[in-house]
Amino acid sequence: MSQHKLEPIISTERLHVRVTEMGRELDDHYRGKNPLLVAILKGSYMFMADLSRAMAEPHEVDFIATVAYAGSEPDSSGVRLVKDMDLDITGRHVLIVEDIVDSGRTLAKICALLATRHPASLQVVTLLDKPEARVVDVPIMLTGFNVPDRFVVGYGLDLAEQYRHLDGIYICTDLEETPTDSRPNRCHG
C-alpha cells in the first residue's frame, strides 16, 4: 500500500458531536414513523452505525451496494446494483444514508430506483456534501458537513480500499491536482 499525504479536516470529536445532533434531528422528524435507514455500501457503514446509535426512535436498517460505471456519452454514468436491500420498502419512510455526495449522479439514480418501489417517503441524509462538485441536483434532507471539492478519506471513506479505518476525515493532499472523475477507485453519489 502506498502512503498518501493526509491533512485532517474533521476531527473525531466534531464527527461525534454532529452525528449525535443529526440523530436527534432525525428522531424529531421521524417520531412514531419507524423509518428504514438504508446505507449505501461501503463508505457509509461507519456513519450508519453511529447514526443508528444516536437515534432513540425505533427504526430498522438495511443496505444497498452499487457500482458506478462510465457511459458512452460524455458526462454520463450508469449505476449497477450489486447488493439489493432485503426489506420491502412499500409504504415505508425510507432514509438513504450516504457517506458523501459530490456530483449527485449515483445518488440520483439510487433515489429514482427506490422511488419505483413506492415508499411512503424517501429522504437523504449525508455525512459530507461537496456542493461545488454537484452536476445533478439531489434533495438532501440533512447534511453533516460541507467539504471542499477535494479528495477525502476516513470514517468509512476510502482510497483503493485504504483509510476507511481512520476515525476522522482527511484530505489526500497529494491528489489535489487530480480531477475528481479520474481519481482511482472512487465514484460517489
Attribute tags:
3-stranded antiparallel β-sheet; alpha/beta; single chain; Rossmann fold; 189 residues; 6-stranded mixed β-sheet; disordered C terminus
Concise summary:
By secondary structure, this protein is an alpha/beta fold. It has a domain at 18-68 and 77-149: Rossmann fold (3-Layer(aba) Sandwich), CATH 3.40.50.2020.
Helical proportion, percent range: 10-25%
Beta percentage is: 25-35%
Spatial strand arrangement across the major sheet: 4-3-2-5-6-7
Q: Total strand count, please?
A: 9
- The residue-averaged pLDDT reads 89
Return the CATH class of the domain at 18-68 and 77-149: Alpha Beta
CATH architecture grouping of the domain at 18-68 and 77-149? 3-Layer(aba) Sandwich
Secondary-structure content class:
alpha/beta
Q: Report on the biggest sheet.
A: 6 strands, mixed
Q: What is the name of the CATH topology of the domain at 18-68 and 77-149?
A: Rossmann fold
Any low-confidence stretches, pLDDT <50, length ≥5? 177-189
State the end-to-end distance.
Answer: 26 Å
Order of helices and strands: EHEHEEEHEEEE
Number of helices: 3
Q: Rounded to an integer, what's the Rg over CA atoms?
A: 16 Å
**Principal-axis shape:** globular
